Amino acid sequence: MTLPRSLRWTGGQLDLLDQRCLPHSVVYRQLTKWHEVSDAIRSMVVRGAPAIGIAAAWGVVLAARSGDDLDQAIEGLRASRPTAVNLSWALNRMQSFVNSKGWVDVRELERLAAVIEAEDRALTQALVNYGIGVLPDDCRVLHHCHTGAVATAGVGTALGVIVAGHQHGILKHAWLDETRPRLQGAALSSWELGCCGVPSTVIVDGASGLLMRRGEVDVVLVGCDRVAGNGDVANKIGTYNLALAARAHGVPFYVCAPSSSIDITTVDGDAITIEERPEDEITHFHGEPICAFGVRAWNPAFDITPAHLITGLITEFGVIRSPSRHSLSALPLVN
Q1: Contacts of residue 60, Cβ cutoff 8 Å, sequence gap at least 6
Q2: Of 327, 284, 332, 335, nearest to 307 (Cα)?
Q3: 136-174: string of b/e by CB count within 10 Å (b at 16+)?
Q4: Which residue in 249, 42, 255, 41 sits closest to 145, CA to CA?
Q5: Nearest to 131 by CA among 334, 318, 2, 262
Q6: Number of C-beta neighbours around residue 290 at 10 A
Q7: Could you give the CA distance from residue 68 to residue 98 in angstroms, rounded to a whole number?
Q8: Are residue 159 and residue 303 in the same domain, yes or no?
Q9: CA distance 38 to 40
Q10: Spatial contact of 51 and 151, defined as CB atoms under 8 Å apart
Q11: Cα separation of 225 and 51, whole Å?
Q12: Residue 106 contacts by C-beta under 8 Å, 6 or more apart in sequence?
């Protein structure tokens, strides 16, 4: 099966793949206003840090086409989700371009958004090419959340490495955390690997330690939403627990980090804003209550994995072993 594209620009509107409908149906939302893009990011119609940034860039184009205030549109888009740095990274590029011109040229803004999208396709492929190199022969990989093609404009990041590893005959099996509370691992990663013919098994998030204790995991491979300047990583909630379990069992823990997710201006993980989402994502499932009436829930969408627990960052520039402020500052990042 050919995977659907995460987004497509049709010249007057942005079509976004509604990831909330997967794996049961493929539905595209047709957006013509920047605030519709902002709502789509906030409600997780589009998710995955690279795809969020690209969608936001096209949102600026929609604002320009409608004659809206671009500063207002950019700040509105920026506020839609606070943790993934790709969002601000793409918006800063769009805003810098407008400021450098002093006026709005819609066609040139369209070209810049298309460049940002094309760059993601190229860099995710380069990242995957390097990522294959960390996989031992006949390996079993554990993955958290979803980092596949529909979370980017290209082949994906960590899940892209898993697919490529299988295609090269290196990867034997993928274990997939279900990823509570929105179940991206169960709904998206398992579907995408199934489409690509990769053998996989879904586990509850809390089963990863037992799986490692039994010697069933050779490598942990995850994505990220932001890498701080010292190498700390923000990723989907549960990643920190996974890194601790991997360290306890001597399992290598790699983070796939495209340059658009690296934020050297953020000092460390403690300086990263952690998005807190609605309680009903935990207390309800598909609109039905699963907790006792009135029970409160805490729903941070991300956590911080300290750099010292990370075996290496896989980037489009290569694999950065034991990431640090020195190694990250040497990267040729695009601001």
Answers
A1: 34, 70, 73, 74, 77, 91, 94, 95, 109, 113
A2: 327
A3: eeebbbbbbbbbbbbbbbbbbbbbbbbbbbbeeebbbbb
A4: 255
A5: 318
A6: 11
A7: 14
A8: yes
A9: 5
A10: yes
A11: 11
A12: 61, 64, 65
Active-site residue set: 225
Structure tokens at 184: 């991206």
Q: What is the DSSP string of 180-235?
A: TTTTHIIIIIHHHHHHTT--EEEE-GGGHHHHHHTT--SEEEE--SEEETTS-EEE
Q: CB–CB of 56/70 below 8 Å?
A: no
In a domain, 335, yes or no: no
**Residue carrying structure tokens 């190229």:** 122
Render pLDDT for 66-102 as a digit per residue (tens, 0 to 9).
Answer: 999 999 999 999 999 999 899 999 999 999 988 887 7
Do 183 and 64 reside in the same domain of the chain? no
**105 three-class SS:** coil
**CATH number of domain containing 71:** 1.20.120.420
User: Tens of pLDDT along 241-275?
Assistant: 999 999 999 999 999 999 999 999 999 999 999 99
Give the domain range for residue 264. 126-329
Residue 334: inside a domain: no
| Joined tokens for residue 253 | 């823990």
With 0.70 as the threshold, say if the pTM is over it. yes
